[in-house]
Structure to design on (1180 residues):
C-alpha cells in the first residue's frame, strides 16, 4: 500500500535557503518567515499524509459512478473535501474580500504539491473550482462576484471549466455550443461538452459551470466565442438556490487514470447562462489564468514524481535480492537490499535529482507570478509567461519518466495494483495532455513566447543565467555546477539563434519545438541546481549542523549536472537538424 | 476502437530485401522464398487482424476471473485459441517428431510479432506453453518428451514456467519451494509461486507446470535448485488423464495491463513432480531457451509499438484541428488534419523509425538463433547472446516510449479507454520488467556478455559494422547513413573501452550499464537503417516500381540517423561519468 510523506523539509529549504522568499520585495512576502511557512506546511502535510493519501488507492479502485444523473464519488472523498473546506484550504490564496485567506500563490503551490502528491484525483475537485473562481474574479461584474465568489472560495459550491467538444479540443474555433440571447439579457445554452473534470458530483450544494459558446450571428472561429456562467441550480437574488438548470451529466469517461475524478460529458439543453466578460472575448476570459493553470499541471507532474520516488525508495531499501558487486553490504540479511545496486541507484538518482530541481523551478516560477500580480511587475509577468510552457511541458514529460522509473525499481511488484506504483504512472499521464498538450506548450514557446516583446524576456533569462555564472566564477567549489550550466546555456542560445535565423521557415522551427522545450527545461533545472548548491555551501559554511542534508543536495546536484544536463547538446543537434526529415515523408506515403 | 493491420509488407521487405533469408546458408532457409513466406504471413496476418485484434479490448475490459479455483478467461479467447491450434500455429517452429511444423524460428518471430501486436495477453497462453515445450524438448528424457511434447505442440495441453516467489524474483537463490524425494522416484512439491502467467485456465485439457524447487539437503542458493514437471492432471501411461494433482490457483494478480492473461498465484501442496534435467541444475534447464524467451519479450515491446503507431497514424490523418503553419493543406475541411503539424509528425516519425528499424534488428537476431541452432554455429550463438540483452532492453524501453508517444498523438482521446491507445501503453509496460528487468539485461550485457569468450563476440560485432561502413564508403548516396553510423559506432567502442579500463571498479561500470545498453541498441538500429537504405537503393536501381515504399524507407532512415542515433554521444558521456555521482549518496542520506 503506497504512502505519502510530506516534503515540508525540502520545500522549506527551497523557500528560505534558495529563494529567500521573506527577503523578496513582494507585498505579503515579508510574512513568509520560516516559522510561519513551517507551521502552514506542517498542517498541510498532515492532511496530505493522513487524510488524502489513504484515499488515493480507494479513489483509483472505486472510481466514480453515474447513477440516474447523479455522480457518486469514491468513499471518503466527501469527508476529505470537508477537511479541506473547514481548514480554509480551498480559499487559501483567494481574495479576502470574498472569504479567502489571501496567501501568496507561491505558498499555495507548495501546499498544492503535497496535496496533489497525496491524491491528485481528489484535489482536482477544489482545483477546478479555483479555476472558476479565478475567472469570475478577473472578469465578472461586481454583482457576479458577490453572487458566486464567496461560495466558490469556501467550496460550498464547486466550479468547472467547459471548453472541449467531441470535434475539438485544441482548436476551440470549431466549437458548436450555441448561446441564444434572451429578452431578459440571459442566454440559452445548447450543446455538448466533454472531458469536464469534476463536472458533476454532490460534494457541493451547487456547481458553477463556465462554458465557452457561440452566439449565433457572431464572427466565425475563435473570434466569435463568448464565456458564460451556467449554474447547476439557479441562484436567487437572496443567494438561495432555485430550480435545477437544464444542464446535466450525460456520461462519465472511462479513462487510464485519475479514476477518483469525475470526467463528465455535460449536456446543455437550453440551459440559462450569463455572459461573463466581453462579448466574443470568451477565449481571453477563459485563459486569463493560463499561467497559473499550466503551472498547476506542471505541479501535478512533479507531485506524482515526488510520491512515486518516495515509495520506490522505501521499496529499494526494503527489498533484498542478490549481493552488491563490491561485496556484501548487509551480512545480517539473506541478501542485500536492492538500493546497493548501481542500476537501481541510477533510477533513484534520476528521480531524486528531477524532483528536487523541479520543485525549485516550480516555486521560483510561482514567486514570479506573485511578483507580477502583487507588484504589477511586467518584467516578472513576461519572464514567467516565457517559462510557463517550459515548466508545464518539462515537469510533466520528465515527471512521467520519473513515475515509470519508480515503477521499474519495484520489478514485478511495480506492475501489480497492490503496490500502487502503477497508479502514479496512470494518474501522471494526463498531465502531459490536458491544459494544452505538451506539443502545444512547445508551439506556444517557440511560436509565440520566444519572440514576444521582441525577445525581451528570453534575453532577460539569459542575462539571469549569465549573472549567476559570473557571480560564482571565482568559487572553485562551484565550478562543477557552473561549467556544465555554461555549456547548457550556450546550447540554449544556439538553439534560439537557429529559430531566429529560420523564422521564415516555420516547419523547420516547429520540428524542433519539443526538443527546444526540453533544452530550456534542462537549463532551468541546471540553474536551480546551481542555486541549490550555492545555498547548500552557504549553509555548510555558516555551520548549519544538518550537514547530511546539505551534502546530499550537493551530491544530487552533481548527478544532475553530469548525467542529465548534458542532454542539451543532443537536443540542440535535433533542433538544428530542422524540418527536412520530420516533414520529408508525404502524408500519402505513411 | 483500435484496429490492427498486418505488417506483412514490411516483414517481407526485411526478410527478402534486407536479410535475404532464402540466400542464407541455413538448413531450411532455402524454402523461405518470397512466395512461401508471403503466403504464411498473409494467413497469419488475417488471424491477427480478424480473430485476435477484435478480442484485445474485450480481454482488457473483462480480464480473468477466479471462480472456485477455476480461471475464466475473457469471452472469445477460447475460440481464438482454437483457431491458432487448428491452423497449426502453436507448433509452428516445433519439432516435427512431436507434431510441430519445423519452421525456422525467424519466420515464427515474424508471425509472432503480428499476433502479439493484435493481442499480447491472449498470445501469452500459447507463448508460455511454447517455453515449457522448449525446456522439455531440451532437457526431458525420451519418455518425458513422448509423454508431454505432442500435446504441448498442439496446445491440447498448456504449459507454464514457475520461478518467482513472494520473496524473490531476480535472485532465485532465495526460493523456498521444497521438493521431497519419494520412494518411487517422484517428488512432492510444496510452496507458493507468484506471477505465473497462464497458470490456470480451461482452454486446454491439462496444464504442465515447470517448477523450480529445492530438494532438502541440497546446496544453498542458486546451486541447489532443480526443475520439476508438475502436471495439473496426472498423466497415465496410456496418455489418458488421471487424478487432479495437488496444485491449484490461489489467486489472480490485479495488474496494470495484459488483463486478458491470467497471472496466477500457484499453490503446491505436496504436488507430485518429476525431475527434469540434472539434479541441482534446474537454473540451467530453465534458462536454456533464454535467448528465445528474451527475444520474445523484445518482440512484444516492438509489437505494441507497431500497433500503437498504426492507430496513432490513422487518428492523425483523421482528426482535424487548426491550420498548418505553412498554409492550409485541406481547404475542403473546416481545419487541417493534425498530421500536417510538425510536432505530431515528429512523434509519428519517432515511432515509425523505431518500429521499422527495430523489426529489422529483431528478425536479424532471429536468423542468428536459427543459424546457431541449425548450423550449430558457435559464433552466431555468441553474437546473438551478446545482442539479446540489448534487444530485450532497447526494444522494450523504446517500445514503451513509442506507445506513450502514440497515445500523445491523440490528445485527450488518448487518455480515454474508448480509443484504446492507453491499453497499448499498459500492456507494453510489463515487457520492461519480466524475463529479467531491463536493469538485469544491462547487467548481463556489461557484466557478462561483453567480456565473454575474451570479448570475441563484441569484436565480431564491431567488425561487422566496420565492414558495412567500408563496403559503402564510396557510395555517395549512402554517406548520410554511413557517417552517423561511424560516429555512433565510435561512441560504442569508446564506452566499451571505458568498461575495460575500469573492470576493477564494478560500481563505475554498472552505473553506466543501462546507458551502454541503449548506446548499443542505437548502433544496432543504425546498422539496420544502413542496411535498409542500401536495400532500398538497390530496389530503386533495379527499377522496382514501388518507388514510394523504398523512398519512404530512405526518408525514415534519415530521420533515425539525424534525430535518434546521435543520442549515442550523450550516452557515452554518461557511461564515462562513472559511478561517483550515482553511488555517491550514502543510503542513510536518501
Amino acid at each position: 500500500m503506497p504512502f505519502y510523506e510530506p516534503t515540508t523539509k525540502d520545500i522549506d529549504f527551497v523557500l528560505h535557503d534558495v529563494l529567500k522568499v521573506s527577503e523578496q520585495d513582494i507585498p505579503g512576502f515579508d510574512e513568509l518567515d520560516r516559522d510561519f511557512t513551517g507551521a502552514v506546511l506542517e498542517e498541510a502535510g498532515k492532511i496530505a499524509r493522513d487524510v488524502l493519501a489513504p484515499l488515493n488507492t480507494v479513489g483509483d479502485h472505486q472510481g466514480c459512478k453515474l447513477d440516474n444523473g447523479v455522480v457518486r464519488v469514491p468513499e471518503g472523498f466527501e469527508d476529505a473535501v470537508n477537511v479541506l473546506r473547514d481548514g480554509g484550504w480551498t480559499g487559501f490564496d483567494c481574495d479576502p474580500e470574498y472569504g479567502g485567506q489571501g496567501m501568496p500563490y507561491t505558498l499555495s503551490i507548495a501546499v498544492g504539491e503535497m496535496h496533489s502528491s497525496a491524491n491528485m484525483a481528489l484535489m482536482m475537485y477544489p482545483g477546478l473550482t479555483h479555476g472558476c473562481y479565478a475567472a469570475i474574479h478577473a472578469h465578472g461584474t461586481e454583482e457576479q462576484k458577490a453572487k458566486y465568489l464567496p461560495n466558490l472560495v469556501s467550496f460550498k459550491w464547486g466550479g468547472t471549466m467547459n471548453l472541449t467538444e467531441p470535434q475539438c479540443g485544441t482548436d476551440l474555433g470549431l466549437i458548436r455550443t450555441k448561446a441564444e440571447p434572451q429578452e431578459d439579457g440571459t442566454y440559452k445554452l445548447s450543446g455538448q461538452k466533454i472531458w469536464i473534470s469534476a463536472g458533476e458530483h454532490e460534494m457541493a450544494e451547487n456547481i458553477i459551470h463556465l462554458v465557452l459558446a457561440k452566439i449565433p450571428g457572431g464572427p466565425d472561429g475563435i473570434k466569435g466565442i463568448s464565456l458564460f456562467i451556467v449554474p447547476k441550480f439557479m441562484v436567487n437574488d437572496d443567494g438561495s438556490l432555485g430550480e435545477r438548470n437544464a444542464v446535466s451529466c450525460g456520461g462519465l469517461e472511462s479513462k487510464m487514470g485519475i479514476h477518483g475524478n469525475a470526467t463528465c460529458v455535460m449536456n446543455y439543453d437550453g440551459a440559462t447562462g450569463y455572459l461573463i466578460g466581453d462579448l466574443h472575448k470568451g477565449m481571453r476570459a477563459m485563459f486569463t489564468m493560463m499561467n497559473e493553470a499550466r503551472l498547476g499541471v506542471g505541479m501535478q507532474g512533479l507531485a506524482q514524481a515526488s510520491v512515486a520516488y518516495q515509495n520506490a525508495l522505501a521499496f529499494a531499501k526494503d527489498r533484498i535480492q542478490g549481493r552488491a558487486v563490491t561485496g556484501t553490504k548487509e551480512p545480517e540479511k539473506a541478501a542485500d537490499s536492492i538500493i546497493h545496486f548501481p542500476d537501481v541507484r541510477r533510477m533513484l538518482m534520476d528521480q531524486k535529482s528531477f524532483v528536487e530541481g523541479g520543485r525549485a523551478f516550480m516555486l521560483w516560477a510561482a514567486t514570479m507570478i506573485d511578483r507580477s500580480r502583487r507588484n504589477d511587475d511586467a518584467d516578472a509577468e513576461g519572464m514567467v509567461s516565457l517559462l510557463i510552457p517550459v515548466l508545464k511541458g518539462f515537469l510533466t514529460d520528465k515527471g512521467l519518466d520519473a513515475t515509470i522509473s519508480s515503477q521499474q525499481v519495484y520489478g514485478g511488484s511495480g506492475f501489480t495494483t497492490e503496490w500502487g506504483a502503477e497508479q502514479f504512472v496512470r494518474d501522471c499521464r494526463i498531465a502531459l495532455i490536458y491544459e494544452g498538450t505538451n506539443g502545444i506548450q512547445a508551439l506556444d514557446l517557440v511560436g509565440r513566447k520566444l519572440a514576444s516583446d521582441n525577445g525581451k524576456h528570453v534575453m532577460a533569462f539569459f542575462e539571469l543565467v549569465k549573472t549567476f555564472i559570473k557571480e560564482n566564477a571565482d568559487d572553485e567549489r562551484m565550478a562543477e555546477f557552473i561549467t556544465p550550466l555554461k555549456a547548457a546555456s550556450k546550447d540554449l542560445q544556439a538553439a534560439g539563434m537557429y529559430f531566429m535565423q529560420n523564422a521564415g521557415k516555420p516547419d523547420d522551427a516547429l520540428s524542433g519545438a519539443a526538443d527546444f522545450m526540453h533544452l530550456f527545461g534542462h537549463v532551468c533545472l541546471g540553474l536551480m541546481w546551481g542555486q541549490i548548491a550555492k545555498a547548500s555551501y552557504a549553509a555548510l559554511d555558516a555551520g548549519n549542523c544538518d550537514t547530511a542534508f546539505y551534502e546530499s543536495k550537493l551530491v544530487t546536484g552533481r548527478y544532475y549536472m553530469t548525467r542529465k544536463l548534458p542532454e542539451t547538446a543532443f537536443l540542440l543537434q535535433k533542433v538544428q537538424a530542422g524540418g527536412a526529415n520530420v516533414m520529408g515523408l508525404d502524408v500519402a506515403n505513411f
Residues 389 and 441 of chain B are 5 Å apart (CA to CA). The longest helix of chain B spans residues 342-374. Chain B is about 55% helix and 10% strand.
